[in-house]
Write a structure and sequence with these properties.
The structure is a homodimer. Chain A has about 450 residues and is α+β, with helices and mostly antiparallel strands. In chain A, strands 12, 13, 14, 15, 16, 17, 18 and 19 form an eight-stranded antiparallel sheet that branches. In chain A, strands 5-6-10-8-9 form a five-stranded antiparallel sheet. Chain A starts with a helix and ends in a 12-residue tail after the last helix.
Chain lengths: ~450, ~450
């Protein structure tokens, strides 16, 4: 329970201006980008690792729940304080401490917004490969806590592949540093990657050492158009089989195309499915790679492939993909519930076909988007969340798609994490014994169960 | 204690032929590639996950130490059974279960030798990026348990970046599957990467799902020659600053060059330091990249840069690098004790200079090799292990270099793990609190402390 004494103590730690306790303020922190909500009792906005440490020490001594939040762009309810308590808003700790091209790293505080960091890195000719579609709001801390993926996953993997080390505050208030600012590290257990993907259940990430890459010299962006959704799966497979590693391959089905067209008036063609493909490399070479991909796609069933000729055209396509999810809110005035599964590429045609059949069966209006190049499908269900029946139907559809994906050797959570929505499904994928171990690991870090409690672990 | 009854029971589990208990046999399993040794009481060679499970169940019920071994190429004593007990020789579980180009994965048993896998993958135009220099003997299980790195680390990182999932037998005999055969995964804590780099202290890895890449179309191999060791560090920095991501950058100093020359009669020039550089990509483009690198290296202080013009010449250079460590045994009739530190690239010139000063100070004959492109230095000390004074001196030199590297923000273990040799140094890098957590995690998996006990955790 957060008493007046606790609030007083929190004010002493972070300063009065950085403690929020009015209903209006708390309400802002009760939501993430999912359809769940939960009110915190108090919000603190720390300015330093030391302040985070003091807040956690206090919370731990009184067994008050703590949920760290970043940009609150989470799509599964991971950042929702379902047991009240203290929300730690990390967005005030947003310093970019170091960018080093020679070391190919940057060191940042957890509250840095990825989009801001990307702009700074670009000035040095650098980028950080993970790129969740929420770049403009998501913070590094949140991205790490979720183990987020993004568009460039096909070529670059996900967050865990691009982090060298962390500073973390444990529930006891102890501060530890994991990993190292070096490109190789093998000193003990890999605690870095235990915090990545822990959804705030083990401690609060305060700083991160990120591994960078030089910006590619050139990118060619293409769009391929298909008459059947499952043909997209076939085409993705053909690209990989040809030994091409695309930078991105992004799916928009007819529903998604119509939605972004009405939201942004982009004038995309009204086809069953389109795929945006980027290949990157050096000038001269990348164009050759692009024509090779064009040929593969045409042979694999695309009825047309176009290359974006101008920067404007390229930007328009990227905007289309990034706007697919938010456009649903604007156009349909409904809430979008995105599923987030991943299958081996060879199973993509079947997974796409069956996911469509399942959503048709449940009568849920579903659009299909996804980072299809790495097998990551996002069927998005459009739901009136004020109608419990509609929500119930959508969640049943959601679960059936997850189970279908498991039967194909896939995973129920590719990059959005478990949060609330998948907490009852996780054991079906991981098994009882692995869940026991995860729970025991949670107790090692957080014996009083104060960190984002009563979620999936 | 491994009694006759235990041996009898082990015979029932894996078959009589697969239990070794004679002194001669046990002796073979008492060493890895380090200078440590420790005799097991019995060796079992399981054929299946089920057999591994039964062996562990038995060992756990009787609290008998268990050490899994692969190719025994470990350089720090990680695979040495210092408390006797059972060695599980995994080399009999060496099936390549699946290679899938469309899914860019392979599924293998832990006992597969990497060199064998590489040959099979090449038939499909694929490769697995991690490439420890012990490729021809090291097994996938051992490589994963160590979190090994290798030559291609500059471009591709290390083992942890190229594993999607595992099958692991826990000390209780329970079998768990971690991760997934998909390119993205975010379902719970990242147990996969907790086993990677655990040195056999948490369980036995029996299968792995590895993420692959298409073989590059072309590689250009160059050698750059330097008059001063520390200039190599400067040159590596200039390459990164230019935004080039080299495939490999391998250092051999004068001592290493002389050693491989006398071992293999390669006729390499007798210079202070040489660096072998590979750049990879598509034909036509890669040559341009190579001339760019050549220019950078010459400007950065190399006095000559040569491009290997034939396949034979390329192979000779690779052989030189891979033979540097074994050649020391042959040429000097001494044992080579390799250090394995990594620093941020900007600190390389200072780290190289000071490491040389430290080994001069201790009067230890030291050669310098290393995957210098990622900041990974291997000062190798040539020691008569029969002379305790010489060993003591070398280990003091080893420790002083480790501490110097820590003072530069580096790590004491880049890719060889902790094993025995670094067990007293690990806390200086990770800190007491992180060590407490590692020990508690160890207890979660292995409450009876049977797995590779009394090492660093």
């Amino acid at each position: 329970m957060v008493t007046d004494d606790v609030i007083e103590e929190l004010r002493r730690i972070v300063g009065s201006d950085s403690v929020l306790a009015s209903y209006e303020d708390l309400y802002c922190y009760s939501r993430d980008a999912s359809w769940y909500s939960g009110m915190p009792e108090v919000v603190v906005r720390p300015h330093s690792t030391e302040e985070v440490s003091k807040v956690l020490k206090l919370a731990n001594s009184l067994k008050i729940p703590v949920v760290p939040q970043g940009g609150r762009t989470n799509l599964t309810g991971g950042a929702i304080p379902i047991r009240g308590g203290i929300v730690i808003d990390m967005t005030g700790m947003n310093r970019i401490i170091e960018i080093s091209k020679i070391n190919m790293i940057c060191i940042v505080e957890a509250g840095v917004v990825l989009g801001v960091l990307e702009k700074e890195l670009a000035k040095h000719g650098l980028f950080w490969p993970p790129d969740p579609a929420s770049t403009d709001s998501a913070t590094i801390g949140g991205i790490l806590a979720e183990g987020a993926g993004g568009l460039r996953g096909a070529k670059y993997g996900t967050t865990r592949d691009w982090v060298l080390g962390l500073e973390v505050v444990l529930p006891t208030g102890d501060v530890i540093n994991t990993g190292s600012a070096t490109l190789k590290w093998s000193t003990g257990y890999d605690l870095t990657r235990l915090f990545i993907r822990s959804e705030g259940t083990l401690g609060v990430i305060t700083k991160a050492i990120l591994k960078l890459r030089p910006l590619p010299e050139a990118i060619v962006r293409m769009t391929a158009f298909f008459n059947r959704l499952e043909d997209v799966g076939v085409a993705v497979g053909k690209v990989w089989e040809a030994g091409v590693v695309p930078l991105i391959m992004e799916l928009l089905d007819r529903g998604a195309i119509r939605s972004v067209n009405s939201y942004l008036n982009l004038g995309l063609p009204d086809v069953e499915a389109m795929v945006i493909i980027d290949v990157d490399g050096v000038k001269g070479e990348v164009e050759k790679q692009a024509s090779r991909v064009e040929k593969i796609l045409m042979e694999a069933g695309a009825f047309d492939v176009k290359t974006a000729l101008t920067k404007e055209e390229m930007d328009k396509l990227y905007l289309a993909r990034r706007s697919a999810y938010p456009s649903l809110f604007r156009v349909f005035k409904k809430t979008a519930i995105p599923d987030d599964t991943c299958v081996p590429i060879s199973k993509l045609p079947e997974a796409l076909r069956r996911a469509k059949e399942i959503s048709d069966k449940w009568g849920v209006y579903t659009i299909f988007i996804g980072h299809i190049g790495d097998g990551n499908m996002h069927p998005v269900f459009c739901v009136d969340v004020a109608d419990p029946k509609e929500v119930d139907k959508a969640l049943k559809c959601y679960e059936e798609i997850c189970r279908m994906v498991l039967s194909l050797g896939g995973t129920i959570a590719a990059e959005h994490g478990i949060g609330i929505v998948k907490s009852k499904l996780i054991e079906e994928e991981c098994g009882g014994k692995a869940m026991e171990i995860m729970k025991a690991i949670k107790r090692v870090f957080d014996p009083n169960n104060i960190m984002n409690p009563d979620k999936w672990v």
